[in-house]
Specification:
globular; 4-stranded mixed β-sheet; alpha+beta; 12% strand
Length: 140
């Protein structure tokens, strides 16, 4: 956290830490540790979210964000978007394409190497290209 001065008031600026993102064609190994500095930016009140996420990723190695947030709500935790992103980056990495597109995987877990566990957790992504065309909205 850096203090910026000059306009008469102090603004806090956080260093941006990139989430670990993998593509299906990327060669192993997968990330085994959080990005450098990720754990250092967590506040004390965000630690229960990180611990709950660690427990959920021990139960299952791959999650979509929606079901993760639902499980956290069942545990009485309602993290905001920023807290969720900072917490997820400490326990998981994100798949950007392939059979697990948009899924968070536990750090150190490569679903390509564990087909029996990861196979049933593949993401089915439905897209209707016709609805993406602008004219489709006006011709109805």
């Amino acid at each position: 956290v850096k203090a910026i001065t000059g306009t008469g008031e102090t603004k806090l600026r956080r260093a941006w830490i990139q989430v670990s993102v993998l593509k299906f064609k990327d060669a192993p190994p997968v990330p085994t540790e959080p990005p450098e500095g990720a754990e250092g930016q967590l506040r004390q009140d965000e630690m229960p979210v990180v611990e709950a996420l660690r427990g959920l990723f021990k139960e299952r190695s791959l999650w979509l964000r929606g079901p993760l947030e639902e499980c956290l709500r069942e545990k009485g935790l309602t993290p905001n978007t920023t807290t969720m992103q900072k917490s997820l980056m400490c326990v998981s990495y994100l798949w950007s394409d392939g059979p697990w597109r948009g899924a968070y995987a536990r750090l150190g877990f490569d679903p390509r190497q564990h087909a029996e566990e990861a196979g049933p957790l593949q993401v089915i992504d439905f897209r209707d290209r016709f609805l993406r065309q602008q004219r489709a909205y006006f011709e109805r």
